[in-house]
Design goal:
Elements (H helix, E strand, L loop, with lengths): L3 E8 L16 E4 L4 H9 L3 E9 L1 H6 L1 H14 L4 E8 L2 H18 L3 E5 L4 H6 L4 E4 L7 H16 L7 H4 L16 H14 L28 E6 L3 E3 L15 E4 L11 E3 L7 H5 L7 H10 L4 E8 L7 H17 L4 E5 L2
Parallel strand pairs: 1-3, 1-4, 4-5, 5-6, 7-11, 7-12
Antiparallel strand pairs: 2-3, 8-10, 9-11
Length: 349
């Protein structure tokens, strides 16, 4: 292949459009390399050329994904690239999700290979790692130059349709895919070798890494619910009508809290669900179906529950990564503990 034509995708910040105040800006295109693209061009050397830079505000692509992707694809296709490089996004959640969306759309609709870069805990990794080649990065842009060198090397291989090795060899995050290959030794012999090394305390590399999950010990039961302060937390997406704080319908990047002072019932005239992972018709008719404040107030009046905490916490679970969900839980939990809450009722969908 002759010189590889590369289109670089960036968010509004790295494209030099502006900071958070410009996150609502729509897609735009600039000739050649911009911002981090200059380092990408150095990493490509004579093997590739950054012919254009396409950018979009993180909020715009999150809130209007169909319109954003259509415009991005129109810009990208105009330059007939052999490769699209997105980011790197580091640990920026919205940016990571945007890079993943762009890469998937380019691959599926333009049939052009892509590569991006993200911090392993970026929510975009969990959502897109099985479909996109993602180079691991540090948490911040301090690792920009080194990351772009690895992305360029991997991208050139993809553009040239060269056979890739294992993730550890090529420098991309494991995609959870399994391939059949001929090994030089039978599985039984390899397994025994690993077992012996483990028993000896020697380092070894498993051929099938297992996912790691946190184990949370169950708390002690409440001694007297009738004297307890109980809070309500939900991932069902029920927010005040009109969604004034712009909770995302999927891939949530935040949680919100609302006052329950004087609220005995969640009506469809005052509350709605913005959740993008289920049919919200019945929930919007009566939001108590997702967050049963009406019944909890009855329990409170009967003395079955001491007090319903005066703040309600909400997010959207659809598309959320375990890393993001864990952070939400820790942040909300700290507030509840500090407020002296004794128990939590958690509702989903």
């Amino acid at each position: 292949m002759s010189t590889v034509r590369v289109v670089h995708y960036l968010n509004q910040f790295f494209a030099g459009v502006g900071g958070e105040e410009k996150a609502g800006e729509g897609p735009r295109v600039q000739e050649g390399a911009v911002g981090p693209g200059l380092a990408l061009q150095r990493a490509l050397g004579e093997a590739g050329e950054v012919v254009a830079t396409v950018s979009c505000g993180d909020n715009f692509i999150s809130e209007q994904p169909e319109q954003a992707i259509e415009q991005v694809l129109e810009f990208v296709s105009k330059y007939r690239p052999d490769l699209v490089v997105a980011g790197p996004a580091f640990n920026a959640g919205r940016y990571g999700l945007a890079c993943g969306q762009v890469c998937v759309a380019v691959q599926e609709r333009l049939q052009v290979p892509t590569v991006t870069g993200m911090y392993p805990d970026n929510p975009g990794v969990e959502v897109y790692r099985s479909r996109v080649y993602i180079v691991p990065t540090g948490a911040s842009a301090a690792t920009m130059a080194a990351t772009l060198e690895r992305m360029a090397a991997l991208g050139l291989k993809l553009a040239r349709k060269e056979r890739l090795g294992l993730p550890a060899e090529e420098g991309y995050l494991a995609r959870g895919l399994r391939f059949t290959e001929r090994a030089d030794r039978p599985a039984a012999a390899r397994a025994v070798d690993m077992l012996v090394k483990r028993l000896r305390g020697e380092p070894f590399q498993t051929e099938r890494p297992l996912p790691q999950y946190d184990r949370v010990a169950a708390p002690a039961p409440l001694k007297d619910l009738s004297k307890a302060t109980v809070a309500v937390v939900s991932s069902g997406g029920v927010v005040p009508i009109g969604n004034p704080d712009r909770m995302e319908s999927t891939f949530a990047t935040k949680w919100l809290q609302y006052s329950l002072a004087g609220v005995d019932d969640l009506t469809g005239e005052a509350w709605q669900s913005v959740h993008g992972g289920y049919d919200t018709t019945l929930a919007n008719e009566d939001p108590d179906r997702v967050v049963p404040i009406d019944v909890l107030r009855e329990f409170e009046a009967q003395g079955a529950v001491g007090r319903i905490f005066d703040r309600y916490y909400v997010t959207v679970g659809s598309g959320a990564s375990t890393t993001t969900a864990k952070r939400f839980g820790q942040e909300i939990g700290r507030e509840l503990v500090a407020a002296g809450v004794d128990a939590v009722i958690y509702t989903a969908t």
